[in-house]
Design goal:
single chain; 440 residues; alpha/beta; five-stranded mixed β-sheet; 13 helices; 24 strands; globular
Length: 440
């Protein structure tokens, strides 16, 4: 690393360039898997039909001093070397170090879970299993980088911030029973008694950040903290209700729209979704209405510069490498167990290699925070509490290697999420400390 680049990374600003004012460029590429490709990493039925194309959508922001990029793609999880593939190629296309790029998933379950290192581990095992087509990953990540490189910036004079409540959509997945045990309220919940339980802890607000040239919007970024899926596992490829709402609004407004899943690791639509077509339609209408009202509430602030900072983050491991090595090597083990072993080992290796990073983009009164894994909603609420005078929106589902990022208390309470988390107690302090440093 050159001395100049090292200094730039330390001070938290991108490569210096000359430019007149703030500019934002939008880019998009197709990330729809081919028919037959595994969905949800091989745990679900492979792709049999495409109901709607899956997209990667991003923006490049440049104020002449700092250049950075954020993007979201309609996949479930993007972990370790698959995350690197997209991030590094977008960074190369934009002309910045990877730390100035953050890539996230919308977390639709009708899409790939992608961990390139997991597939490499499977291929090196006594009997491989299909998880991710590595040649296809190479093509679509290169296409994303090419799209970012070709993006043309437009002048931006104002940032807009708006929010609206989304009623009757989100509910906490962790429902404590009379015996104190955690009951799971899945994204589709057919048990009427479980649906009747209170919503629990959620963040009901959808937040929208807009970039405008005068009164003309250039791009809008939407943030909401919930699992987005209303259906999954049937082999049909789509971005579910959040992607549909995003695309409808884009067609209606003629404005580029991106959706970021917030901290929804313990939040689903289960209270309001019994799996019927009628319930899905209500959820779609509810979410679209919230997105529209969030846009309508937008207030504008003049801006001419941005600030990007990042923090290294080490998350404590909960899992033991030897156990998963043995499972991966045992061809008598169920397919699901060996797939799980591969993605877990990929994260163990990533953790051993060094810290990951989290970042924050500041634009006028707006802070955009970028977090890894499937964070609990508590982390989103915590971020918003640090600087209540500012407009803070949080994107989860970045580097997906850790899977669930629970609160420390959850590991003692049990339930689904702690068992699908490769990080453990101590994670809450580590992540909250990093968030606080980003928002100081």
């Amino acid at each position: 690393m050159s001395r100049a680049l090292a200094l730039l990374l330390l001070c938290g600003c991108g490569p210096v360039r000359t430019s007149d004012g703030l500019r934002v460029a939008t880019f998009q590429s197709d990330v729809t898997p081919p028919l037959g490709h595994p969905l949800c990493g091989g745990w679900a039925k492979p792709a049999e039909a495409v109901d709607a194309p899956l997209l990667l959508k991003g923006i490049v922001i440049d104020d002449g001093r700092t250049r950075c990029a954020v993007a979201a793609l309609d996949w479930c999880v993007l972990g370790t070397k698959a995350y690197d593939a997209f991030r590094n190629r977008i960074a190369e296309g934009v002309g910045v170090p990877p730390r100035f790029v953050s890539v996230h998933c919308t977390h639709t379950h009708s899409a790939p879970i992608a961990d390139a290192r997991a597939q490499e581990l499977l291929d090196a095992s006594p009997q491989t299993l299909p998880h991710l087509d590595l040649a296809w990953l190479d093509r679509v990540s290169r296409a994303a980088g090419d799209a970012a490189k070709a993006a043309v910036g437009r002048p931006v004079t104002h940032v807009g911030a708006g929010k609206a409540k989304v009623e009757n959509f989100a509910s906490n997945r962790r429902v404590k029973g009379p015996d104190g045990k955690i009951r799971v309220r899945w994204s589709t919940t057919k048990d009427p008694e479980l649906r009747a339980e209170p919503e629990g802890l959620i963040d009901p607000w959808i937040r929208t950040v807009s970039f405008l040239d005068g009164a003309t919007p250039v791009a809008r970024l939407h943030y909401y903290g919930s699992h987005p899926q209303t259906v999954s596992g049937d082999g049909r490829v789509h971005g579910d209700v959040v992607a549909n709402a995003r695309q409808y609004l884009e067609q209606e407004e003629g404005v580029f729209q991106i959706y970021f899943a917030g901290c929804g690791g313990n939040v689903t639509a289960g209270k309001y979704n019994d799996g019927t077509p009628e319930a899905r339609q209500r959820l779609a209408s509810t979410f679209y209405s919230g997105m529209v009202r969030s846009v309508q509430s937008t207030s504008l602030t003049p801006v001419s510069e941005v600030e990007w900072i990042s923090q290294d983050l080490r998350l404590p491991l909960r899992v033991k490498e030897a156990d998963y090595r043995a499972t991966l090597a045992d061809v008598a083990k169920p397919k699901q167990a060996r797939l799980m072993a591969a993605v877990t080992l990929a994260w163990i290796e990533r953790s051993a290699a060094g810290p990951i990073d989290v970042s924050r983009l500041r634009v006028g009164p707006v802070d955009l925070v970028h977090l890894p894994g499937e964070p609990f909603v508590e982390y989103q609420l915590y971020a918003q509490s640090i600087r209540p005078e500012r407009f803070t929106a949080v994107a989860g589902y970045g580097e997906g290697g850790p899977w669930y990022v629970c609160t420390d208390a959850a590991y003692g309470e049990g339930g689904y999420e702690p068992g699908a988390s490769w990080v453990g107690p101590g994670v809450e302090g580590a992540l909250k400390d990093a968030i606080a440093r980003l928002l100081k």
